[in-house]
Amino acid sequence: MMLSRVLARLDVGLDHSIERLFELLKYKSVSTDPEFRENCRETADWLVKDLKTIGFDASRRDTIGHPVVIAHHDGPNADALHVLFYGHYDVQPVDPLALWEDDPFNPKIKERNGHKVISARGASDDKGQMMTFIEAVRAYKQETGQLPVRVTILLEGEEESGSSSLYSLFEMYGNELKADYALVCDTSMWHRDTPSISVSLRGLLGEEVIINAANRDLHSGYYGGAAANPIHILARILADLHDQNGRVTILGFYEGVEEIPEQILTAWKALNLEARQFLKPIGLSLLAGEKGRDLFELVWTRPTAEVNGISGGYEGDGFKTVIAAKASAKVSFRLVHKQNPLKIRKAFRTFVRSRIPADCTVEFLDHGASPAIQLSFDSPLITCAKTALSEEWPNPAVLVAMGGSIPVVSKFRSLLGMECLLVGFALDDDCIHSPNEKYDVNSFHKGQRSWARILAALST
Ligand code: BES
Ligand code: MN
Ligand code: MN
Question: Rounded to two decimals, what is the model's pTM?
Answer without folding.
Answer: 0.94
